[in-house]
């Protein structure tokens, strides 16, 4: 691997085209077809980016205009992203799970000039209502009759020459707007410059440089949504910077098979996926008998103890590694150099489990507002419970109330059309993360709590509980609600039944009525916001029982303490 010349790159398209000239006909983007994985070379991808960029120019896409990109992970996603930014426009990545009304909000809020969407999402997108400022919608896949087909657009050379990068785009210019939910009712659009994303890639490269190969391309399996800042930086731009290869997963149902097939060297995951894998592994282990069962338990127990004691492997450990641990690592393809868990907190027990078998699992930390990586562990210096040390080009300190503050070129330019929130988040030039933490003597950062009232699920979805609670409380049957699920795979809630409605009803009828109310609210929420199960409160939240503040706001910690056992039981059923 050549040393990435970050000092020469001002924009993301400039980095990509420079790397494409270096790697030429070498494979770059891989997709799974009927005959296995097939690749597109750096040269071919560069040609298609230029072709689409020229087409966008013919649609009069101007510098600074916004283009919504809503599609599944694929080479077309990459090509669209780079072509948009190559025109000096801003990519607005969106999840494919949004509802039509959500798409309408993003169309209105960004005043998007164009949209690029998967053919499977086209009808839902059109249902949002085309606004006057949306000049065209390009469809990836099979376009409706009368529209130009995507394949023809990206493979047709432009009639006139098209520069590889727009000359008037500078590093401080905005490259994208990534929406993230916070404490407000509507999501906030994080504006990231080219410089911010390149800075983050450089910091990540410095972190990983000691484990990257000098002679072979690194392989990355892409399956987390590219609309999330974590995957877009770690699984796209960083791979470009190091001259690696990206394999796109065809279906999450095929993940286990594709891991064995691709044998990735780098992988980004969220805790929810790891927990599912751990449960499957434990289920299989329960069916073992005799010596296999003994060997499995020995490998797990000794591996976890070794993480605590710091002792080196003995002869017996090497035997267990050969007989047991290698088989566990083979689940991930057997070639992983680092497996980074991000997007949500990684439970220590989960990290300890995989590391016991020699899986190089580490935890990182970041926010969309920081492009997003702030800190990360390494397999060779992995401190349990921490999120690692700050990247080499990132400054981290704690405020008086232990809020984690971040400074560096990686920070966002601000929130799109939200000056008040920008001033608050970037006070004094530092990003105020809303997370509380501590830093040990060796510089390792630990997350200890959260100042903001947001929920981050184990799948990495950042959600506003207040918005969901507000909708729940509008229902006839529900007087009060507290939504819960930080670090969990889905949301639950504690609900207080409306007294007049619940009068003279049995407990069973109350629960049934509340269930119907929750289902009604869920129809107005995106899938990650759905409340799947709930606990019926024993009494209303009040100032007297300590569950309301004097200003009548719910006290989450007090309610959680009172109902935590009941909430946890919801996830065991």
Briefly summarize what is shown:
The protein has about 575 residues and is α/β, with parallel strands linked by helices. Helices cover about 35% and strands about 20% of the residues. The strands form 7 sheets. The protein has a 5-stranded mixed sheet.
What does this molecule look like?
By secondary structure, this protein is of the alpha/beta class. It folds into three domains: 14-21 and 42-169, Rossmann fold (3-Layer(aba) Sandwich), CATH 3.40.50.980; 269-452, Rossmann fold; 464-570, GMP Synthetase, Chain A, domain 3 (2-Layer Sandwich), CATH 3.30.300.30. Strands 11-12-13-14-15 form a five-stranded mixed beta sheet. The chain has a four-stranded mixed beta sheet with strand order 2-1-10-9, with helices on both faces. The protein is globular and about 75 Å long. 46% of the residues are buried. The mean pLDDT is 93. A hairpin with a 7-residue loop joins β7 and β8. The protein contains 18 helices and 25 strands.
Largest sheet: 5 strands, mixed
Q: Enumerate the spans where pLDDT stays under 50 for 5 or more consecutive residues.
A: none
- Percent range of helical residues: 25-40%
CATH topology of the largest domain: Rossmann fold
Any idea how many domains?
3
Shape call:
globular
Compute the number of strand runs.
25
User: End-to-end span in angstroms?
Assistant: 49 Å
Total helices: the number is 18
The H-level CATH homologous superfamily of the largest domain, spelled out, is ANL, N-terminal domain
Q: Supply the CATH class of the largest domain.
A: Alpha Beta
Global structural class: alpha/beta
């Amino acid at each position: 691997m050549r040393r990435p010349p970050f000092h020469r790159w001002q924009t993301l398209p400039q980095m990509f085209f420079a790397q494409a000239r270096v790697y030429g006909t070498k494979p770059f983007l891989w997709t799974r077809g009927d005959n296995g994985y097939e690749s597109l070379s750096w040269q071919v991808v560069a040609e298609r980016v230029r072709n689409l960029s020229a087409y966008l120019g013919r649609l009069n896409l101007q510098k600074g205009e916004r283009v919504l990109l809503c599609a599944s992970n694929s080479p077309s996603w990459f090509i669209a992203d780079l072509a948009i930014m190559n025109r000096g426009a801003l990519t607005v990545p969106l999840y494919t799970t949004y509802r039509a009304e959500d798409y309408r909000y993003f169309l209105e809020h960004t005043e998007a000039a164009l949209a690029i969407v998967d053919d499977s999402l086209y009808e839902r997108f059109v249902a949002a209502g085309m606004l006057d400022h949306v000049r065209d919608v390009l469809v990836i896949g099979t376009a409706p009759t009368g529209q130009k087909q995507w394949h023809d657009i990206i493979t047709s050379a432009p009639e006139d020459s098209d520069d590889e990068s727009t000359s008037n785009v500078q590093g401080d210019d905005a490259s994208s707007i990534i929406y993230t939910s916070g404490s407000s009712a509507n999501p906030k659009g994080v504006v990231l410059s080219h410089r911010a994303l390149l800075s983050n890639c450089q910091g990540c490269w410095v972190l990983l440089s000691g484990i990257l190969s000098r002679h072979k391309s690194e392989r990355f399996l892409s399956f987390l949504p590219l609309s999330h800042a974590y995957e877009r930086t770690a699984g796209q731009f960083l791979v470009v910077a190091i001259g690696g290869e990206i394999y796109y997963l065809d279906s999450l149902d095929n993940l286990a098979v594709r891991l064995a097939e691709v044998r990735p060297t780098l992988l980004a995951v969220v805790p929810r996926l790891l927990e599912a894998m751990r449960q499957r592994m434990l289920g299989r282990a329960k069916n073992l008998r005799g010596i296999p069962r003994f060997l499995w338990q020995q490998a797990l127990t000794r591996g976890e103890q070794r993480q605590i004691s710091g002792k080196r492997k003995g002869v017996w450990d090497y035997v267990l590694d050969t007989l047991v641990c290698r088989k566990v690592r083979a689940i991930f393809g057997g070639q992983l150099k680092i497996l980074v868990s991000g997007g949500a907190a990684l439970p220590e027990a989960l990290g300890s489990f995989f590391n016991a078998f020699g899986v190089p699992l580490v935890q990182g930390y970041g926010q969309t507002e920081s492009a997003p990586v702030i800190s990360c562990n390494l397999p060779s210096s992995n401190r349990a419970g921490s999120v690692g040390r700050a990247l080499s080009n990132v400054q981290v300190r704690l405020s008086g109330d232990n809020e984690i503050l971040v400074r560096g070129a990686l920070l966002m330019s601000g929130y799109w059309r939200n000056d008040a929130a920008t001033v608050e988040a970037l006070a004094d030039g530092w990003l105020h993360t809303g997370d509380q933490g501590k830093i040990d003597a060796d510089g390792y950062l630990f997350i200890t709590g959260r100042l903001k009232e947001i929920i981050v699920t184990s799948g990495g979805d950042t959600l506003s509980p207040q918005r969901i609670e507000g909708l729940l409380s509008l229902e006839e049957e529900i007087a009060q609600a507290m939504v819960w699920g930080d670090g969990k795979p889905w949301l639950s809630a504690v609900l207080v039944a409306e007294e007049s409605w619940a009068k003279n009803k049995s407990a069973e009828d109350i629960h049934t009525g509340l269930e119907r109310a929750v289902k009604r609210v869920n129809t107005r929420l995106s899938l990650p916001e759905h409340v799947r199960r709930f606990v019926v409160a024993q009494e209303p939240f009040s100032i007297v029982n300590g569950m309301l503040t004097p200003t009548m706001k719910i006290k989450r910690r007090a309610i959680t303490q009172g109902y935590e056992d009941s909430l946890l039981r919801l996830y065991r059923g």
